[in-house]
């Protein structure tokens, strides 16, 4: 069977499945330019009499028209089947008119692949919910193959809308423009341009002499109401007559947009998965039928899956499949092989409707798939990240006709092959003949469930990372039990080493400790510290007191020396903590203010307030800062040379927001995108927000957990970072532990982190000055480093074998007589032995105190 023959028969066979008249069979192969009449702007506010007038004009002349409908009200809630618009559209569908309906999602083209898939699922489900009476009356689902949206300058890839059965995207132009089309690798087609039709015009627009091969004629439902009803009826009739005459003259073929995929130019393909169910009995005819099916498909070299019967009407109603979508990550000592799909149970919560997965085996990076033969479960990617695919069964006895019915249409589908239905040679032979016909039609491609999932699910680095993290997170369960005496003694020795830095280098008069120390011959102390550094020192002192390295009296004396130095400075009628101060001079520093560093300072003062007797003094100190003057619209601003600039687009902004809130200031965070979203959608929104900021490292994610309690947002990002570091180690043997910190050569300080939007796993870095010479791959490879403090943070916040490896490595490589070296270079294994810093040693003290106090 040739491609065009299949398309004609597929449309004819599919007509029983579509409560919308299809016109493709009459026009396939026609040479006349294709015209797609479309009515845009239909929503709950549309005037029903005016819309009826136009639809009647098209219906009376047997002209197909696609209606672009917003299936949501002004509050974003789905319109129900009892809404006036739903009743109007249902009447036309049940009456046999030539209308098809496509949801309108205005911002679709601006969304990522994940959120396009989600928008397609929700819009199609809402539209089908509106038209439920039609589905019940016809006993068939409303097929929705087209979505529409506004045109934008740089639209995102639309390939993931195919998860919802959508093949076509219309991008509505602001003004008339030539039609331009795109076809994506998985068959999704997108059209730009088209003609804006004004029914109020006395005459059609003048032609420019060219003959386009296709055009989309857009009428505006909003404009209908601007005309008196009688005038609109006459104008609609006149326009419909012109279209009819064009078709009679052979200058146009009038088509619904759903037929777009049936044009040869788009090379449409549909994907069919064959699923052989387990035999009901392991002997006799059932087993024979199973063996015959497996042998036949193997002989024909067709991919298929095997497993339980996934028909929802069976006792396995909650059964789904876990389908791997990413290449496997090898584990130590194990060879990697492509993982196979396997059954899972999808358990719906009675309280909130969320879906949880139950499985007896570890999950590879992939997606949960549910199969739906009825209108009860809408296809596509739902809020819980479960992909629903259409499923067909073959009516018995198996004949050429029942096989044709099961495989009919153009939708992607999973077809169940039950062994008990193929116990006879006649049934098996009929299946073979039909599969041979499908293979020859140039349209149908039999694929594995893995392959289908890979073709339709959202692609790109962020969805891939999300799926990998979801598969790895079950491994992150903390081990039971406390620390052994030997482990406690080792940690105490580490704490003493870190304490030596603060003990040796703190200035006796100011009480402040230098930010970095180079104790090689000719080295020096860096005696300017930021408020971030001071915050670290305060936290280090609190930790040293908790561990028992410093007496209560000495602790109080140390804090009493520090506090006068952070009284702040008045500039432009604002008293604010200074950008930096000297450690060897009392209350001496600049007039700038850093919003991120202030967040660190406020977090440390809150920590001190909870673990000391300085509470009243700290309340007075923080109240003296004019912080309200650097908070605008919920964003924290920094001040540089008197000019304000936002510190919101920063990974410190979330940590700072939590710290500012501890002192009564209402501040927004760029991470807080979970509200109103499911867990799955919230995680994806957070990853996309992080991409807009930059690479993520261990700080301040894990500092938040130590000092403020880990928020859900930071807990998830910590899992993303940790599992990716673990993945790198298992694949390459490289120990990765990225954060920010100093190094012992130019550029002296590096920000290192995971770049989530890179096509391959990338550990990116940047400098304070963002100099281009330090952004090369060669520099990155040479200076990628294990952060000593981050290793101890992971040990405290994420107990795991890999965390233990990191701390052992740092302990053996970076411990010195003056504290811990800041970094260990991954390429050479060389530590910055003669170069260490206040943040590293203070944070190691914090992490050890946390671990000793929480694990016993």
Automatic annotation (TrEMBL):
Annotated signal sequence range: 1-24
Domain DUF3131: 494-853
UniProt keyword annotations, A-Z: Signal
Top-level taxon of the source organism: Bacteria
Span list, region Disordered: 305-340
Family annotation (InterPro entries): DUF3131
Gene3D superfamilies according to UniProt: 1.50.10.140
Name the UniProt record assigns to this protein: Uncharacterized protein DUF3131
UniProt source species: Tritonibacter scottomollicae
């Amino acid at each position: 069977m040739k491609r065009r023959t299949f398309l004609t028969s597929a449309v004819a066979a599919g007509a029983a499945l579509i409560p919308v008249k299809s016109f493709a069979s009459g026009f396939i192969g026609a040479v006349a330019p294709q015209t797609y009449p479309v009515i845009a702007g239909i929503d709950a506010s549309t005037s029903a009499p005016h819309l009826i007038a136009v639809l009647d004009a098209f219906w009376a002349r047997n002209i197909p028209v696609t209606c672009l409908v917003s299936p949501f009200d002004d509050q974003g809630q789905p319109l129900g089947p009892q809404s006036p618009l739903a009743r109007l559209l249902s009447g036309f569908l049940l009456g046999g008119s030539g209308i098809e309906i496509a949801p309108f999602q205005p911002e679709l083209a601006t969304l990522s692949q994940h959120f396009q898939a989600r928008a397609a699922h929700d819009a199609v489900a809402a539209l089908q919910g509106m038209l439920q009476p039609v589905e019940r009356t016809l006993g068939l689902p409303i097929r929705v193959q087209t979505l529409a949206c506004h045109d934008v300058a740089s639209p995102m890839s639309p390939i993931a809308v195919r998860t919802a059965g959508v093949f076509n995207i219309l991008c509505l132009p602001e003004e008339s423009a030539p039609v331009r089309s795109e076809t994506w690798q998985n068959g999704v087609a997108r059209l730009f341009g088209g003609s804006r039709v004004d029914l109020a015009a006395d005459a059609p627009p003048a032609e420019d002499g060219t003959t386009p091969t296709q055009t989309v004629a857009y009428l505006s439902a909003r404009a209908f109401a601007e005309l008196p009803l009688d005038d609109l009826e006459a104008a609609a009739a006149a326009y419909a007559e012109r279209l009819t005459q064009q078709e009679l003259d052979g200058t146009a073929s009038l088509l619904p947009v759903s037929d777009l995929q049936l044009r040869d130019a788009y090379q449409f393909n549909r994907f069919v998965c064959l699923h052989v169910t387990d035999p009901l009995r392991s002997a006799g005819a059932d087993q024979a039928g199973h063996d015959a099916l497996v042998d036949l498909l193997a002989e024909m070299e067709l991919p298929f899956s095997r497993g339980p019967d996934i028909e929802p009407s069976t006792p396995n109603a909650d059964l789904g499949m876990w389908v791997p979508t990413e290449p496997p990550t090898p584990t130590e000592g194990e060879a990697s092989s492509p993982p196979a799909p396997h059954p899972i149970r999808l358990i719906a919560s009675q309280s909130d409707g969320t879906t949880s997965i139950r499985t007896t085996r570890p999950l590879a990076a992939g997606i949960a798939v549910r199969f739906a033969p009825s209108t009860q479960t809408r296809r596509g990617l739902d809020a819980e990240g479960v992909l629903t695919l259409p499923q067909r069964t073959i009516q018995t006895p198996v004949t050429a006709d029942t096989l044709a019915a099961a495989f009919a249409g153009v939708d992607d589908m999973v077809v169940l092959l039950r062994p008990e239905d193929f116990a006879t040679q006649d049934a098996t032979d009929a299946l073979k003949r039909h599969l041979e016909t499908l293979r020859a039609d140039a349209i149908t491609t039999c694929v594995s469930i893995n392959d289908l999932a890979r073709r339709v699910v959202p692609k790109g680095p962020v969805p891939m990372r999300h799926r990998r993290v979801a598969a790895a997170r079950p491994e992150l369960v903390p081990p039971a039990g406390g620390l052994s005496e030997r482990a406690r003694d080792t940690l105490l020795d580490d704490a003493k080493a870190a304490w030596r830095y603060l003990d040796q280098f703190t200035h006796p008069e100011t009480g402040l400790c230098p930010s970095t120390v180079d104790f090689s011959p000719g080295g020096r102390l860096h005696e300017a510290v930021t408020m971030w550094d001071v915050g670290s020192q305060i936290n280090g002192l609190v930790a040293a007191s908790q561990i028992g390295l410093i007496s209560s009296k000495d602790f109080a004396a140390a804090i009493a020396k520090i506090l006068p130095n952070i009284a702040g400075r008045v500039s432009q009628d604002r008293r604010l903590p200074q950008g930096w101060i000297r450690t060897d001079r009392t209350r001496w520093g600049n007039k700038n203010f850093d919003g991120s560093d202030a967040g660190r300072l406020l977090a440390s003062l809150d920590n001190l307030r909870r673990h000391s007797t300085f509470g009243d003094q700290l309340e007075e100190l923080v109240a003296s800062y004019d912080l309200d003057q650097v908070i605008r619209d919920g964003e924290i601003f920094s001040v540089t040379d008197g000019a304000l600039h936002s510190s919101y687009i920063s990974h410190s902004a979330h940590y700072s927001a939590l710290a500012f809130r501890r002192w009564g200031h209402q501040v927004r965070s760029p991470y807080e995108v979970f509200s109103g979203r499911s867990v799955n959608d919230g995680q994806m929104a957070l990853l996309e927000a992080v991409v807009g900021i930059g690479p993520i490292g261990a700080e301040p994610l894990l500092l938040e957990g130590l000092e403020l309690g880990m928020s859900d947002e930071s807990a998830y990002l910590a899992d993303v970072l940790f599992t990716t570091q673990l993945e790198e180690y298992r694949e390459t043997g490289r120990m990765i532990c990225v954060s920010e910190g100093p190094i012992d050569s130019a550029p002296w300080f590096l920000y290192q982190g995971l770049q989530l939007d890179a096509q391959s796993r990338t550990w990116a870095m940047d400098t304070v000055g963002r100099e281009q010479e330090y952004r090369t791959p060669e520099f990155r490879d040479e200076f990628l480093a294990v952060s000593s403090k981050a290793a101890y943070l992971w040990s405290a916040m994420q107990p795991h074998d890999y965390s233990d490896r990191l701390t052992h490595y740092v302990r053996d490589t970076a411990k010195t007589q003056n504290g811990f070296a800041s970094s260990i270079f991954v390429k050479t294994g060389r530590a910055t032995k003669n170069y260490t810093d206040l943040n590293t040693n203070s944070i190691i003290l914090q992490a050890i105190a946390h671990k000793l106090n929480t694990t016993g």
